[in-house]
From TrEMBL:
Lineage: Bacteria, Pseudomonadati, Bacteroidota, Flavobacteriia, Flavobacteriales
Xref: Gene3D superfamilies: 3.10.450.50
InterPro entries: NTF2-like_dom_sf, SnoaL-like
Pfam families referenced in this protein's UniProt entry, alphabetically: SnoaL_3
SnoaL-like domain span: 33-146
Name of the protein this chain belongs to: Nuclear transport factor 2 family protein
């Protein structure tokens, strides 16, 4: 009985250590990603064009707040360049951030609430570890709309988006 107890205790210890070790690894990666995302936001605020775009993977997508804003990295760079040149960029500060990992730890995804010139927005995205650095594969910027004002917002945007809705429905046929 004593031998069985010792073996069982050892198994629990090894399993527990492995689990804690994996959790510690992900905590370290969370800190790394959090710093990367903060640096990403600071580079935009300081209009550091090359630095900002260095956070994106070569094959990546940026999805903006407007329904027409879905760009690959090169398209987003072209759109953003005049803003960076004029130093008229965006200044986002994370208020709350969640980071999650795939089981193998090669992919991560996040969502965060941001303090922006548009008030509270949500940033979310997918990250991939490429050559030892986390890179943005997809970034989605969304404006938050309090439930109490959804009807007003829908009313305000209907005229603009009704045209786009018809175009999208027609192109789907």
């Amino acid at each position: 009985m004593k031998k069985t107890t010792i073996i069982f205790t050892l198994i629990l210890y090894v399993f527990g250590f492995t689990t804690l070790s994996a959790q510690a690894k992900f905590e370290k990666e969370k800190m790394s990603i959090s710093k990367m995302l903060d640096d990403f936001n600071v580079a935009a605020a300081k209009a550091e064009y090359e630095k900002y775009f260095s956070f994106f993977a070569d094959e990546s997508t940026f999805i903006g707040t407007d329904a027409t804003e879905v760009w690959n990295k090169q398209e987003f760079k072209v759109w953003a360049k005049p803003h960076f040149d004029r130093k008229k960029t965006w200044n986002f500060t994370s208020l709350k951030r969640n980071i999650y990992f795939s089981k193998d730890g090669k992919l991560a995804w996040f969502d965060e609430l941001l303090d922006t010139q548009m008030k509270i927005c949500r940033g979310s995205g997918v990250l991939e570890k490429i050559n030892g650095s986390w890179k943005v594969k997809q970034y989605v910027l969304s404006m938050t709309i309090p439930n109490d004002v959804v009807d007003k917002v829908v009313s305000e945007k209907s005229t603009l988006e009704d045209v786009l809705l018809q175009e999208l429905k027609s192109s789907k046929k």
